[in-house]
Specification:
By secondary structure, the chain is mostly helical. The protein is built from four helices and no strands. It is elongated and about 55 Å long. It starts with 5 loop residues before the first helix and ends in a 6-residue tail after the last helix.
């Protein structure tokens, strides 16, 4: 049995499930279309690469997420935000320029 694009689609599903679950706290006020556009862009590139270079495309999501995750942790530490809990919430909202409601 030959494995086709299923490998890449499974990887994308796992990555999106994990990252959306873990980092959802950081996207509370982000408009839905921006979140969908980000994942659509990510998926489109991975699937396009599969048709160009085969299973080597599986590297793109990993290589793409590593710098973003490193930046996330650096940005959180620099700004005094907990990298998993997005706390303190008020400070995080101020940094993102979101409206804080008491």
């Amino acid at each position: 049995m030959t494995l086709g694009i299923e490998l890449e689609l499974t990887e994308l599903l796992l990555i999106q499930t994990i990252f959306i679950s873990v980092f959802a706290k950081f996207e509370i006020e982000t408009p839905l279309f921006k979140k969908l556009l980000k994942w659509f862009f990510f998926d489109t590139i991975t699937i396009g690469l599969y048709f160009l270079i085969g299973h080597w495309a599986i590297i793109f999501p990993i290589v793409g997420l590593v710098p973003g995750t490193i930046y996330h942790f650096h940005w959180c530490k620099k700004n005094g935000i907990h990298p998993f809990k997005a706390t303190p919430k008020k400070k995080y909202y101020e940094l993102r320029k979101w409206k804080w409601q008491e």
